[in-house]
Amino acid sequence: MSDPAAGFAETAEGRVHRLPLRIYYEDTDAGGIVYHANYLRYAERARTEMLRDLGYDQVALLRDPGIGFAVRACTVDFVAPARLDDRLEVATRLLSVGGATLEAEQRVERGGQLLVRILVRLACIGAGVRPARLPAALRQALQGLIHPTSAIFIMTLLAS
Question: Which InterPro entries does the record match to this protein (predicted)?
């Protein structure tokens, strides 16, 4: 099992998971700029590593209790491009965790500069790709990442 503190940083808004990555040639278009769809891959990778750092392996979750996660909604704000050989960081902050859903803000940054902001709503799904409740222990672990003022932050994000 992973170190539960690995990848996480305490902030005024709660615990943020940080995943470093580097941009390779395969990530870019002919001009050396990251292809827009790759940011969704980076965000997915960061969410997977956040779960892993909490001690949850997605393969094990698929096996028992038989759940996975599907993107229900996603908004992407492209602010500035990343380029070949950049060192980036994907910061993931959970905004809310419900019985079968969770919402997160993910920021792709280069040296603290915001490049892309992603707001994502995930649904927990089970057999037959039907909605499923989050297991209690996983839900509790995820809720432990949320700062009490996240509800106010969500309203601010949705209004912008």
Answer: 4-hydroxybenzoyl-CoA_TE, HB-CoA_thioesterase_AS, HotDog_dom_sf, Tol-Pal_acyl-CoA_thioesterase, YbgC/YbaW
Q: What is the DSSP letter of 134?
A: P
Bridge-based pairing state of the strands 8-11 and 68-78: unpaired
| pTM of this structure | 0.86
Beta bridge partner(s), residue 10: 15
Residue 149 has pLDDT above 60, yes or no: yes
Q: In the annotation, is 64 catalytic?
A: no
73 burial level (CB within 10 Å; 0-12, 13-18, 19+): exposed
Q: Of 3, 29, 85, 86, which is the active-site residue? A: 29
Question: What are all long-range contacts of 106-113, with beta carbons under 8 Å and residues at least 24 apart?
Answer: 106/43, 106/46, 106/47, 108/39, 108/42, 108/43, 108/82, 110/82, 110/86, 111/87, 113/80
Tell me the per-residue pLDDT of 113-132, one tens digit each, with 9 for 90 and over: 999 999 999 999 998 899 99
Domain architecture of the chain: domains with CATH: 8-159 (3.10.129.10)
